[in-house]
Known about the structure:
About 25% of the residues lie in helices and about 35% in strands.
Amino acid sequence: MKKIFEPILDEFQPTSAKDVSAFEKRYNVVLPEEFKKFQFTYGRCMFSGEASIVSKSNANLEVFTMFGINCGAGDISDDIETHEEYASQGLVPFADDSFNNRYVIKTEDGSVWYLEYNAGTCNTDQVSDTFEGFMRNIELTPYE
């Protein structure tokens, strides 16, 4: 993976294998291996510049913060508890944009989707077939 991340606090907050296993059991999901590797390395973090990605419908989307597992603020479980439809639809939120929209992994097939909330509606846009593809396609513009 590209070295494009920086910690939100003083250092990265990697997730333990025990916490990932407990998360998978709690929500009855199997997380993609590349997502687990990301969590084991970084956990909750942000980008070291302005991050964006182009969706499959050619929309240019911002990516702001990556969430962690069992990390306090920015915890994926908290987001699932807030948005109950995520668990019922097999969606795992893992990132947001600066407008609080979400990027989710669809656990059924590992695909990544962008959920845009607007005036009580939720529009969806597929971003990648895999988490690995999502990471590979992120464009980073360094801060000036």
